[in-house]
Amino acid sequence: MPDAANSLQFDAIARFALDPALAVPEDVLLRMSTLLIDTLGVAAGASGLDVAVIARDYACDYHGANRVEHAATLLFDGRRCSLPGAAWALATQIDNLDGHDGYNPTKGHIGCALVPALFALAEHRPDLSGRQALAALAMGYEVAARAAVALHATVADYHTSGAWNALGVAALGSRLRGHGGDVFRQALGIAEYHGPRSQMMREIDNPTMLRDGSGMGAYVGMSAALLAERGFTGAPAITVEGPEVAHVWADLGQDWTVMRNYIKPYPICRWAHGALEALRQLMAAHDFAAEEVTRMRVGTFAYSARLFAGVPQDTRQAQYSLGFALAVLLVHGRIAPEHVTGEGLRDPRVLAALDRIAVREEPRHSARYPEGRWSDITITLRDGRVIASGDVNARGGPEDPLSEQEIRDKLFRMAGVALSDGRIRAIWQMREALLDPACKFSQLAGLIHPATDGP
């Protein structure tokens, strides 16, 4: 068992996580609401993916609940399964469109696991207000972010987000199910012990439906909270209670990292976004067509240069491909779900553009990771001109945030494949409505079902 100093370290975290009157600043609540709505848009956009259908069917077939109080509704589907099954299915769905928010120091994503857990848990809290839900979600984001930083600082391998967002889900479950400190401690211990410490670079080198491990992270975190409340015990979480990570947790409740989360402009691996922004700026400044480009040279950081280099055969490869993403943006001026699925993968103009793109690692960009996602692009045009972007960082974070209109436009672009404009407008309006003390979280949940608006 941990020594007394570690117990005191945990006690401060427990007070933050479980305090029903946790004071969350208004700007944090609004930011949290924005990230929540953005994540829902990605979830809607992903609802028709083959992996999403597999995940929801699997959850219904193999993760049923024998009592109504143990079940939750699958978002954008309508069927019901167990609480852990619902969290797993939606997190897997979101993770596989890869348009969700993230936080640079974590090298990964939080909301794709916590938002599914929130909806599953909130279904059994009809009294839950929008503000209470946002405060709980903000707490979960803060716990998950610090668990990630602590894990990265204490182990050699680069683990997927599921390894640490499991702890954020466990914290969210403990808060919304009214656990005391000891149950919460066991939940974190179970979540950390069983969290999927899968190797991220295996997935990068061979893109699959596993993605960033967040589906299993959501499942483990939810299961940990439910097991702990029944008396199941877990070894104390060393990424929470270890003395070597005390500094990571020292500013909990003072520094709200959620304010530094980025929102992705595109449903593409974040590692590609520095180069995508460099290309976007060049296109805006020089107004050239894709067919005018005879060569594009890309300098980027090591992880970005390691992204899939061939012609994508499926959505997974397309979203983990720097060259393909650049080709899509060059041809279409945007990247939406239809560009990385179905016929979008076989677009002849995109494939022709892909053939003219060369990627290399640039050490100065590698040195700036993970604080930034920097790249540079040099383009040669048919008329002989050579234009260069200079060093460009990814957009969407606090240093270069998307505007409110851009975030709204993204919601319509993502969710438009599954929902009507009317429902998307109603979901967007909930971004501010959730902050109204009279608003119930169930009002947002009621806008989500079923998967489509018509028969």
**What do we call the CATH homologous superfamily of the largest domain?**
2-methylcitrate dehydratase PrpD
Number of domains: 2
* Oligomeric category: single chain
**Name of the CATH architecture of the largest domain:** Orthogonal Bundle
Q: Give the low-confidence spans.
A: 1-5
Tell me the strand order in the biggest sheet: 4-3-5-6
Question: Based on DSSP secondary structure assignment, what is the total number of beta strands?
Answer: 6
By DSSP (H or I, 4+ residues per run), the number of helices equals 21
Structural class: alpha+beta
Helix content: 40-55%
By CATH, the topology of the largest domain is: 2-methylcitrate dehydratase PrpD
Using only C-alpha atoms, the radius of gyration works out to 21 Å
Q: Major sheet: size, sense and barrel closure? A: 4 strands, mixed
- Between the first and last Cα atoms, what is the distance in angstroms? 57 Å
Proportion of residues in extended strands? 5-15%
Overall body shape: globular
Pattern of helices and strands: HHHEEHHHHHHHHHHEHHHHEHEEHHH
- In CATH, what is the class of the largest domain? Mainly Alpha
